[in-house]
Amino acid sequence: MKFIHHPAASRGKADHGWLLSYHTFSFANFYDPQRMQFGMLRVLNDDQVAAGRGFGSHPHQNMEIISIPLEGDLEHKDDMGNITLIKEGDIQVMSAGTGLVHSEYNKSHTKEVKFLQIWVIPNKQNVSPRYGQQTIPQPIKDNELIQILSPNPEDEGVWIHQQAWFHLGTLSKDYSLTHNLKDPENNGLYLFVLEGKVEIDGHTLERRDGFGLWDSKDITIAALQSSKLLVMEVPMNS
């Protein structure tokens, strides 16, 4: 097994007043040649947007863009005609393909919104732009990882143009589980600790730490505290 550990404190930070954003990988003014991406996982941003503020209309092209709200409600509008609200418990995906324009705003005028913005490099270029959104079944059963994203439209969760699988779950303190990769020959796995503290192969990970591994068929996660995790399996090469 090969691995890389990204402590939360090592992330890039951008404070724009209305937006506080932490970047696991190089993004905007944060540049680290050793942290450009993990396989096909290109962006993992941990964003906090002030009440009533947001991202104005801006374009994307040839990228799979996933948004996962953690707190609050985020209003989405795009030039495909979608006007939607995504909230905690939802997952949103856009296949930017040949190009789309969208905006995202904090729907509340009193509370900030917190969400993850994730970009995955697609395995198909110049596809027709597409929007998808689902509510993750609640409550998530303790000590399980549920699938929230895959390459297959008929599978659980949303789907993208890439051989990638995302799982989300909570672990009780002192509980351990082993998660098997779907495609261990080609893929690696990046785990992001949303809350709590876990141990992987002797490495302790705390809140907002990231841990990537490859050349392995599975991962064993031991919860040192009650923990919430996002587990992202992605191809290591295009």
From TrEMBL:
Matches recorded under SUPFAM superfamilies: RmlC-like cupins
CDD domains hit by this protein: cupin_Yhhw_N
Annotated binding of Fe cation, by residue: 58, 60, 102, 104
Keywords of the record: Iron, Metal-binding
Domain Pirin N-terminal: residue ranges: 13-120
Gene Ontology molecular-function annotations: metal ion binding
Domain of life: Bacteria
Necessary cofactors: Fe cation
Pfam families per the UniProt record, alphabetical: Pirin (PF02678), Pirin_C_2 (PF17954)
Family of the protein in this entry: Belongs to the pirin family.
The protein's name in its UniProt record: Pirin family protein
Organism from which the protein derives: Echinicola pacifica
